[in-house]
Design a protein that fits this description.
The chain contains 15 helices and 15 strands. The chain is of the alpha/beta class. It folds into 2 domains: 141 residues, Aspartate Aminotransferase, domain 1 (Alpha-Beta Complex), CATH 3.90.1150; 253 residues, Type I PLP-dependent aspartate aminotransferase-like (Major domain) (Aspartate Aminotransferase, domain 2). It binds pyridoxal-5'-phosphate (PLP). GO terms for molecular function: glycine hydroxymethyltransferase activity; methyltransferase activity; pyridoxal phosphate binding.
């Protein structure tokens, strides 16, 4: 078979883009060589529907071992009693949980998408808002912090079966104990979706959801720095404590419900090559080196937030506790869309993002979301952050001037080009 140069040329072009640019998308990262190697391995050829020891296909002895190692490492990393490493993505992890805990039409209470929540937390364009009855909590207008009074009021009023604690664009730590208090007050299942801060949580840098939340989902590719994928976990003593009437009316072990929510409920064959890559990433995350990495991510985010504030940028909640920040650009007279486009021309990647109480549409937005997980993997330190903010500020001030943007791209390429990137 002839090598498909058309596609490989594009892969190379993407590699160059990743090497030369400043990657600030808060949900992205760069995996290690060994994670990449496993993700591109022969395990992609194997069908393994079912779970280790209970498969629907022969020849699964090797992938059973791989999957068991991934499960055990995930449990150790997060202090979990149960882990399912098969979800193909964060969205599918959440779908499986909804499947296991809810009936269509049941009420859920999630973080408003426009305040920082995720599509799968009840957005009307997503399965979570179509199949279930979504209700929302949000942030306080004056502080940008989660409004826990609103959360409690909404729970009392709406009587949700499931409450979701977690976000895609929230820069502060989450009080999972408070969430649990609210969930208990209405007999709801509490799901923590830690997709974004998972790496920081694994290393004890942010509040731990495991003692408080019935179920925890995460993606594996953001701060956790693994392959693209998802995972579901439960802590000790959380196995089926709910007293809720389960779908079938029978009391089955919650872990069994979650497993069957993934397969056969929501997926077919697991991606064993990705599960191998997850196992390796979890192994990496168990090291002290990863702790130092996560601390650097947080220090970089803090330094970057301070540099933005010094230049009169309006950060939602005024700063960050984690790896990201959400910036309201309205006082800078530029939309999120124009900012994103201009930054791309300067080889700086961010995403436009709605800000709480936004006046623009989701396609335009008033803000951008910025994160430090990927640039920290590239080796940038606190001392580099004010320079990065200077470059961003220069772009936003000259967003319609392509000549200036080209000049900034050269500076960006000079900063990043000499830095090693895994797999290059
Ligand atoms: N949950 C949260 C909080 C997220 O931020 C994301 C991704 O951005 C997801 C779920 C979904 O993950 P995926 O894109 O892998 O489906």
């Amino acid at each position: 078979m002839q090598r498909d140069e058309q596609i490989f040329e594009l892969i190379n072009a993407e590699k160059e883009r990743q090497v030369d640019g400043i990657e600030l998308i808060a949900s992205e990262n760069f995996v290690s060589d060994q994670v990449m190697e496993a993700a591109g391995s022969v395990l992609t050829n194997k069908y393994a529907e079912g779970y280790p020891g209970k498969r629907y296909y022969g020849g699964c002895e090797v992938v059973d071992e791989v999957e068991n190692i991934a499960i055990e490492r995930a449990k150790t990393l997060f202090g979990a009693a149960y882990a399912n490493v098969q979800p193909h993505s964060g969205s599918q992890a959440n779908t499986a949980v909804f499947h296991a805990c809810l009936k269509p039409g049941d009420t859920i209470l999630g973080f408003d998408l426009s305040h920082g929540g995720h599509l799968t937390h009840g957005s009307p364009v997503n399965f979570s808002g179509k199949l279930y009855r979504p209700t929302f909590y949000g942030v306080k207008k004056d502080t940008g912090y989660i409004d826990y009074d609103m959360l409690a009021d909404q729970a009392k009023k709406e009587q949700p079966k499931l409450i979701i604690a977690g976000a895609s664009a929230y820069s502060r730590d989450i009080d999972f104990a408070k969430f649990r208090e609210v969930a208990d007050s209405v007999g709801a299942v509490l799901l923590a979706d830690i997709s974004h801060p998972a790496g920081l949580i694994a290393k004890g840098i942010l509040n731990d959801p495991m003692p408080h939340c019935h179920i925890v989902t995460t993606t594996t590719h953001k701060t956790l720095r693994g392959p693209r994928g998802g995972m579901i976990m439960m802590g000790e003593n959380i196995d089926n404590p709910f007293g809720i009437t389960l779908k079938s009316g029978k009391l089955r072990k919650m872990s069994g419900l979650l497993d069957s929510g993934v397969f056969p409920g929501n997926q077919g064959g697991p991606l064993e090559h990705i599960i191998a890559a997850k196992a390796i990433a979890f192994g990496e995350a168990l090291t002290d080196e990863f702790l130092h990495y996560m601390l650097q991510v947080k220090h970089n985010a803090d330094a970057m937030a301070k540099a933005f504030v010094a230049k009169d940028y309006n950060l939602i909640s005024g700063g960050t506790d984690n790896h990201m920040m959400l910036i309201d650009l309205r006082n800078k007279n530029i939309t999120g869309k124009d900012a994103e486009n201009a930054l791309v021309k300067a080889d700086i990647t961010v995403n436009k993002n709605m800000v709480p109480f936004d006046t623009e549409s989701p396609f335009v937005t008033s803000g951008i979301r910025v994160g430090t997980a990927a640039i920290t993997t590239r080796g940038l330190k606190e001392t580099d952050m004010s320079y990065v903010v200077d470059l961003i500020d220069e772009v936003l001030k000259n967003y319609e001037n392509d000549t200036v943007l080209e000049g900034i791209a050269e500076k960006v390429n000079k900063l990043m080009g000499g830095r090693p990137l895994f797999n290059v």
